[in-house]
Structures are given as structure tokens and as C-alpha cells.
Amino acid sequence: MRREPPQRLADYGPLFFPAGMLTVFFVVPFATMIAVSFFQREQGGFYTPAFVFDNYARFLSMFFGKVLGFSLFLAVAVAITCVVIGIPFTYLLSRSARKIQVVWLVALLSILSLSEVMIGFAWSTLFSRTAGVTNLFVWLGLMAQPQALTPSFGAVMTAMTYQAFPYTVLVLYPALVRLDPTLTEAARTLGASPVKAFFTVVVPALRNTILATLIMVFIFALGSYLLPQLLGRPQHWTLSVLITDQAIYQSNMPFAAAMAVFLVLVSLALVGLALYAGQQRQAK
Amino acid sequence: MSGLNLSHVTKQFGNFTAVNDVSLSVPDGTFVCLLGPSGCGKTTLMRMIAGLDLPTNGSIELGGADITAVPTHKRDLGMVFQSLALFPHLTVGENIAYSLRIRGTPKDVQKKRVDELLAMIHLPGFADRSVAKLSGGQRQRVAIARALAISPKLFLLDEPLSALDAKLREAMQVELRQLQQRLGITTIVVTHDQREAMTMADTVVVMNGGEIRQAAAPVDIYRRPADSFVADFIGQTNLLPVAADSTGRASVLGEVIEGITLPAGAAKGMLSVRPEDVQLTAPGHGAIAGTVTFIRDLGGAIETFVEAGSTQVIAVSSPRNRPDVSVGQSVGIRLDPATSVVLAR
């Protein structure tokens, strides 16, 4: 169906509401944040309007560079883990009976109703020495005595993957359901084992969806600040943790804003790079 | 024994029996069409031959080896799917070379084979095209070339031409048959289009309700249908009730027809008469009496609908022998015992 292009101002009417919401709740706060990032910090938690680069200059130290590097690494690791687990899982889910699909999807959606705090404390209990899963392993005879699995990098990864996994499945699910099941059957008649068919047909056919999922989980994981604090050591803290620390505990709004802006810029750059790389491969 | 042999193959999905005790022997190099209405089990039967479904019972042999439990990817077959299932992320050439790549064939051998196959399907130089940019007929050919890349022992096609328009479909039927004869490859096609089956097959296997109703050469299927289902499904036919009296003389629609005999002991049956074998004459003199209700002039053929008793009889004649009748006129119908087939059911 071809639509008439809007003729009068009133034809743009339906756009006003979303545009207004976007302006009030996104553009204005973000612009404020950018402005604040250039403000001059005063002792005692205040700041005065100015245009200084001090906040950004302070940010360019080894310490913050390291934290930024770790944040990006953690987000990429979580994104890859989620996709690597998510694709086979969602593939099998999309090929299973309707009833099984519904049960799994409801279970996954219910994870979304849990707050980050609940997820964090639940995992810290599960990973604790006194009440954690290691007690189960001891009971099963797999371990000599219970031990604490947190704080550790593995604990942070596990909880963040757990938190991002439902989103991963929800993004992958429609694409996998729409994927023609005869594609894998065709691959099998052509001599590919089911596993080979999966890697030579399903994964490449879903390249764009996989890229989109990676980007989504990456951005999602980049904003995580509670789980690294609850389950990790200080060296596992992300930039988001430091931003929270600066903004709330150190009352240094300009510096926190500068870090936030920088984080947004870096993630935008990485997403752009990923999209560019995806397009290059497609054009080939 | 070489060729493909199915013995007592049954497939059940829960309580539903999709294929019921099917036995079929397909000699090497023959072209077989599995023909039947939708839901008759023909696709399920093909999927079992391909190994995509496992039979509940029975066994499948190919070239003397039992392949009932051999996984699909080890059967060395080529299959064309109804959806064609071309890989969207690969070019035409990569699609065709897929089975060779999976088997680790050297790149130069792959390329040579792809060029060979592209020439065979009349699409030379298409190797680097995207499959999304091909027309329906071209996609069809690519799917066929992809299935034939390894020179399979068995070539399976599931409703391969259903997505094409009528004209292209007819052309592809001829082309597919010629290709099969040139390669001498054992081929099985699933179709619901009897014209397609008649055009291509050495043997037509008519299926209904999960069972084989008749397996024979196209002409035999048409001329000597085994039962009323086959007679009705293949082409157009008049199914007329036949009754025998105590002396064994058979009568159709109230008239005794000499030369028609019912099987011994049967008092009732069905007579299948092709519309082109129905002769319209003047009423009386032992002809079945009827009234013309409708005349359809299709240009190449004229169909005359005659009501005899409560049964409708259709007669088809060529424009040269245009029957001199009009709607409402009383006519006589003559049946030739030589071209009429008595069916038990």
C-alpha cells in the first residue's frame, strides 16, 4: 500500500506526542548532562555554570582508562556469552512443541520482573560458602568442602548473563521462528550433519539478527552497576559504578556527567563500528 | 536387489496414520510420481525416503542396503523442497556447491562442477548472483542443480513446480523429464497435479488415505483405473452404477449393455467411462435415455452435460464431431464396453 505524504501540519499530528515525550524525557536530560559535564565543580558538592574541560581531562587518567576498558570488555563478554548460549537455546525452543515454548517464554519473561537488586542478592546467596550451590556439590561428593564463589569475575559474568539472557532470547526468537525449517532439512539432504547444518545455514542466515542482539546486550550490560558491586571485587567495577559513586557519594556531578557522556560516545562509536563491519561483510 | 524398495512402511503421528503399510519397488533409473490429494501421505512417504522422518514400521532399501535408520546426511541423495529452501546468505554458485563444500571437495573441482551444472540448467555465468535476485523459474533450476551436485543415487522432489505459473510449470515438467532421462537418475516426485504426473512419470503411484491405490504407467492409470478413487482423481470420468440381473447381464442406467460383465458373484459395481468415450446418438434403440442440461464450448473441446435418470453424464467431443444437440433435447447415450472399466469399489 502506498501512502500519501503528509500535506498539512495537522497530518504530522500523530508525531507530536512521541516527539514531545522524547524531548522531555530524553533530549532535555541528556542535554543538561552534557552541559553539566563542562561545569566547574565547587568544594562541598556544588557546581557553577562554566565551560571547562577539567572533568574530561581528569578522566583521561590510567585508572579511569582501565575501568573503561574493563567495562567494555565485560559488556562484550556478556554479549557474546548470551548470544552463544542464546542461539542454540532459542533454536531448539523455536522447534519444540507450542506448550513447551509457552512455558519457557513465561519463565524467561518472569526473570524480567526481577529487579537487579534481587538478582544480585539471589546470586550472592547461591554463590556463598554457607548457603550456596557448593554445599550441593559437597553433598553430591563432587567437592571436599563448601567454598565461596563470590566475589569473583565469574560471579559477575554469571549474574549479568542471567539478567540479559531473556532479552537475548526475545530478540532472537521471532527471527528463528520465521526461519524456514526446510533450510536445515535441505542442508541435511545435501550431506550436512545437524550440527554442521546449524553452523553453515542457521547461524549465517541470521547474521544480522545476531549482530543486532550482540549490540543490544552489549549496551544493556554496559549500564549495569549493581551486579559488579554486589558480586565482584573493586577491580571488577564498571564505569557505571564509578559514575554512581561520583554522582551520589562524592557529589561530583560534573565529573560523573563527563564520564557518562564519554561512555555514551564510546558505546555509540562501537555500535557504529559493528554496524559498519556488518554492512561491509554483506556488501562483499 | 538394486533400486529403491519400500516394504510395509507405516508412519504414525500419535493416533493418526499418515502412511499405512506401503510397499513399493522403484527400479534404478525410473521416474516415479507420488500423486494424490493433500493429506494422502505422499509427502510423508517422501520424507521417510529422505530420512527426514523415521518410519514407525517397515523398512527402506536403497541399492541393496537397508537405509531405514541411516541419517539423512549419509544417504547421498538430492532433494528439491516445495519452498526450494535456497540458502539466502549464499550466492547461486555457493548454493550449488554446498554439498561439495560439506564433503570437503577441493575448490577447483567445486568450481568446475558448478559451471557444469549451471550450463545444464541453462544459467551459465550466474554463479556470483544473489539468489534473492532470481526469478521463480531460475530459483527452481538452481534448486535442482544444487540437489544434483553430488550426482546422487536418488533424486527427490516435493511439489517442485507448485510455485510457478501454469505456462512455466508445463515447460519445466518437460525439461525435468528430459533431464532425468539424460542423467538416468532414479527420481521420485511428489505432486497433486495429475497432468504433471502424466507428463513426467514412468510410473504413477496414486495414493489416498495413506495407502497406495494404484501404481502403474500413466496410460494404464488413465485407461484401466483400479478403483473409483483413481478413476475420479485422474482426469475426468463418469462413474455410473452397474447392476447385474440373475442371468448375469449387466445394465447401466436401466439399459442392458452387451459386453460388460461384473466380477463373478458381484451384483453391483461402478462403471468408469471417460467423457471422450461417451457417444451421443438419437434416443431409443437400446441407448440410455437422457436430457441435455448444459453445453460448455471450450473451443478445443465441447462438453455436453446429459442427465440420465438422476445421474449426470458428461460427453466430450472435438469441434470436428460437434454433437448436433441443444439444451433440453432428449438424446441417447452409447457406451463402448471396450473403453469402459468395471470397478469393484
The level 1 CATH classification of the largest domain in chain B is Alpha Beta
Total count of helical runs of at least 4 residues of chain A: 13
Percent of residues in beta strands of chain A? under 5%
| Largest sheet features of chain A | 2 strands, antiparallel
Shape of chain A: globular
Give me the CATH superfamily of chain A. MetI-like
Q: Element order, helices and strands of chain A?
A: HEEHHHHHHHHHHHH
Count of individual beta strands of chain A: 2
Give helix % range of chain A: over 70%
* Computed structural class of chain B: alpha+beta
Total helices of chain B: the number is: 8
Q: How much β-strand is present in the residues of chain B?
A: 25-35%
Mean pLDDT of chain B: 88
Distance linking N and C termini of chain A: 32 Å
Distance between the termini of chain B: 34 Å
How many whole angstroms does the radius of gyration of chain A measure?
23 Å
Greatest interface: A-B, 20 and 29 residues
The CATH superfamily of the largest domain in chain B bears the name P-loop containing nucleotide triphosphate hydrolases
